[in-house]
Amino acid sequence: MKKEMVCIVCPMSCHLSVEIEKKKVKSVVGNTCPRGAKYASEELTNPTRMVTSTVFLKNAELNRLPVVTSAPIPKQKIKDVMKQINKVKVKAPVKRNDVIIENVSRTGVNIIASRSFESIK
Ligand code: SF4
Questions:
Q1: How close is the Cα of 24 to the center of ligand 1, in Å?
Q2: b/e string for 17-26 if b means 16 or more Cβ within 10 A?
Q3: Using one digit for the tens of pLDDT, what is the confidence trace for 45-92?
Q4: CA 34 / ligand 1 centre spacing (Å)
Q5: In order of start, what are the domains of the chain with their CATH numbers?
Q6: Residue 111's closest CA among 78, 81, 77?
Q7: Distance 87 CA to ligand 1 centre (A)
Q8: Which of 19, 109, 113, 97 has the alpha carbon at shortest distance from 73?
Q9: How much is the pTM?
């Protein structure tokens, strides 16, 4: 079976043609660098994504705190992770890389703050 896909690892967006046999990647063509083959293999076996979002923030100059996963998470967990993120309320002060949710949705990955905010009081 052949599958066409676009590599999203860098802005080159190479068009990949992937040959799959017995649920395993047999060959990848169209990739300009080795990362494309690795991406195709992972995307077809265990697709993962970084998640960025914001959480409610109190006691700061803005009312939303940007957050990000500390590592890519399985794609099928994104919906549940977003549910957890949407429940969170943080109070400033907060520092960049502070853990906002530990081991979110049992992925082994944390949700961390993307920037710092001072307290306004
Ligand atoms: S194959 Fe390499 S060069 Fe092409 S998009 Fe992927 S990472 Fe970029």
A1: 21
A2: ebeeeeeebe
A3: 889 999 999 999 999 999 999 999 999 999 999 999 999 999 999 999
A4: 8
A5: 2-45 (no CATH), 52-113 (3.10.530.10)
A6: 81
A7: 36
A8: 109
A9: 0.82
